Amino acid sequence: GAQEPMRRGPPGAGNSNALGVAYDPENPFLPILAGDASAYKVLETEHAVAFLDNMPLTRGHCLLIPKARVATVLDLDATGAAAVLRELPRLARALVEATGCQGMHVMQNNGAHAMQTVFHLHFHLVPRYSDGSITSFLASRGPRSIEELLRARAPLDSADAEALAAEVRACLERGGADEARSKLEAAAAGAP
Fold first, then answer.
1. Is 122 an annotated catalytic residue?
2. Distance of CA 67 to CAs 8, 54, 137, 171, Å?
3. Which one from 61, 105, 113, 122 is the annotated catalytic residue?
4. Distance CA 33, CA 35 (A)
């Protein structure tokens, strides 16, 4: 028989962009944005929210999402992109400081063909560690590829998540203060 074509978006959804990917109004991020579901939030602005992934690839794996209801990066306008993406380096720096990681993946998938499974735009920040561990019980297994990390995912440890989220928030607050101080010092240095 004929093989069914791979779906481009959530089942039953209409097309919304050049990839044919539609926004999923039943996606699991909407209850988080509405305050109806719990999440270990690390950052929230007028336009973006970041929280720990509940099935992390590594310790500190965060998701940065826009508050706008868009399926993919193709659906985000320039103003929306600027508002969300200005938080990306700030969040990445805070994660590095909080976790002590030695590297980081920043990933964003558009459409089912690109492994997108939640059809609300999101950016993954995945810290990587020299021992390759994803959690303490896997630490002895050595470095892992993304495919191996996906197969070895485990639910978020709530005790560690609470402490880590608090540390990331503290790093963001310190970083914000450092950034404001740097801007003031630069302005003072250039002033006549």
1. yes
2. 22, 19, 35, 22
3. 122
4. 5
